[in-house]
Design goal:
Largest sheet: 4 strands, antiparallel
Distance between the termini: 71 Å
Number of helices: 8
Radius of gyration: 22 Å
Shape: elongated
Strand order of the largest sheet: 3-2-1-4
């Protein structure tokens, strides 16, 4: 397949295979493959690059969501699943965990502390909120065990 590209106004690259539009990616991503206009590549290689582009977009979306606020793995998976396939979501979540951007134990502890301190929720309500947000029972129980409810009552 003969590859041609077209740069968009926002710096993205539109990729065409044999004159037919295939996909759009960031310039950095595309140029990392060292493929230039009029190069010939196999359909399999083009498909592989498209797949990598999808995973790359999914990872970017995951990081964007996590930059706004912490999420449980369940929440992040649910949000990403609306736009990406299961394999891309799995890869994005694995990378976020590997880089410690996604940690359900830490998320549960931080959220439990916030719900107690700011909203003055009772332990049962905090546990319910954690479970509703996809935190495991073990992580919810661990988070509750670290809280000092007696000190909160004195305030």
């Amino acid at each position: 397949m003969r590859i041609t590209t077209e740069q968009t106004k926002n710096g993205k690259i539109r990729v065409f295979a044999d004159g037919e539009y295939s996909f759009t990616v960031s310039g950095d991503f595309w140029y990392s493959f060292s493929i230039y206009d009029d190069d010939e590549i196999s359909p399999e290689r083009l498909s592989e690059i498209q797949r990598m582009a999808l995973v790359n977009r999914c990872i970017g979306k995951a990081y964007s969501l996590l930059a706004r606020r912490a999420h449980s793995e369940w929440e992040l998976r649910r949000k990403l699943s609306g736009s990406f396939d299961e394999d891309a979501v799995d890869q994005a979540i694995a990378q976020a965990k590997e880089l410690s951007f996604l940690d359900d134990t830490r998320y549960a502890a931080d959220l439990a502390e916030e719900l107690l301190r700011l909203k003055h929720y009772a332990p049962s309500r905090i546990r319910a909120e954690l479970l509703k947000r996809g935190v495991s029972r073990d992580d919810a129980d661990s988070a509750l065990a670290t809280l000092d409810f007696d000190a909160q009552r004195e305030l």
